[in-house]
């Protein structure tokens, strides 16, 4: 009996061992590459970095990662920095300083007004962007600076457009022999915005954003009128300062159409409303004697509109962890009510009329960006 029991246990043990071996062969298949099946490699290279940063292209071709598919678009958290060269033309209304005419031909017959023209100047913009690792959100900060200036001069007979007309004799105020001056605009603006990338299709992305914007725009003008019919050596010095400091809300959207090989077309549109303070200071001196020293401070809200359209090329490398890009665009900005000053027109109250003119920029923007 003991021999029969021992033989039965040995038979059951051998059957169980055979079944375990068959299960090991059939239940856990190992997928091998053609090179591994041919015995050309000893070890399998790692598929991806520990935390891949680009979902669709996690693996390089030589990393042998068959069958890996991700649905989410590329996402590379981390900051990148950018710098732009601004070659913009500055256009501002209300910059007349003299009117040329012939007094003998009648009242301003065939008259022609002379104005300051700021023209084209170079500026700069720097900034940084950080892709927040949550729901494709990001934060962007930028600072822009542009300082256009111009000098103008013309010979008479001239009507001194900016000079006080109230207390001077008639021949002196209607004609001067020469006018020249300088106008300078010191433009500075910064933005802090928070946006979210929205993938509309394989080749189109929309990025709405909202944030805050600040600016300080300081303008300085000096105009000199020389000579009158009665006193050719007379001199009238006029100095004007217009300083605006503002802060407010800003919002808009960016759009990107990708083409191929890293090229894309983008179009951006934004608007802001800034609440700020104007500090106006004007002085006028007649033959070395101060005649006007005028100061005015007031608060005002000023809207701003920005538009940008251009091309971009981006190159991402090392599993999309690093970025190098360049772009070229046509950019425009329109600032309402920035040129504010008083024209003194009468010796009786009110002694002045406050003017309010707009400021605009447009031109070429060339940029470079580096991401880490």
What does this structure look like?
With 372 residues, this protein is mainly beta. The chain folds into two domains: 30-70, no CATH class; 79-371, Lipocalin (Beta Barrel). Helices cover 9% and strands 61% of the residues. It has three helices and 14 strands. A ten-stranded antiparallel β-barrel has the order 1-4-5-7-9-10-11-12-13-14.
What characteristics describe this protein?
mainly beta; 3 helices; 2 domains; 372 residues; 9% helix; Lipocalin; ten-stranded antiparallel β-barrel; elongated
| End-to-end gap | 79 Å
Our count of helices gives 3
Q: How many independent structural domains? A: 2
On the 0 to 100 scale, the average pLDDT is: 80
* CATH class bucket of the largest domain: Mainly Beta
Question: Given the helix and strand composition, which structural class is it?
Answer: mainly beta
Strand order of the largest sheet: 1-4-5-7-9-10-11-12-13-14
> What radius of gyration results from the CA coordinates?
36 Å
Brief characterization of the structure:
By secondary structure, this protein is mainly β. The protein has 3 helices and 14 strands.
Q: What's the topology here?
A:
Blueprint: H1 2-26, H2 34-37, E1 78-92, E2 96-100, E3 112-115, E4 119-132, E5 137-146, E6 149-160, H3 170-174, E7 176-196, E8 198-201, E9 204-226, E10 235-258, E11 263-286, E12 289-317, E13 322-344, E14 352-371
Antiparallel strand pairs: 1-4, 1-14, 2-3, 2-6, 4-5, 5-7, 6-7, 7-9, 8-9, 9-10, 10-11, 11-12, 12-13, 13-14
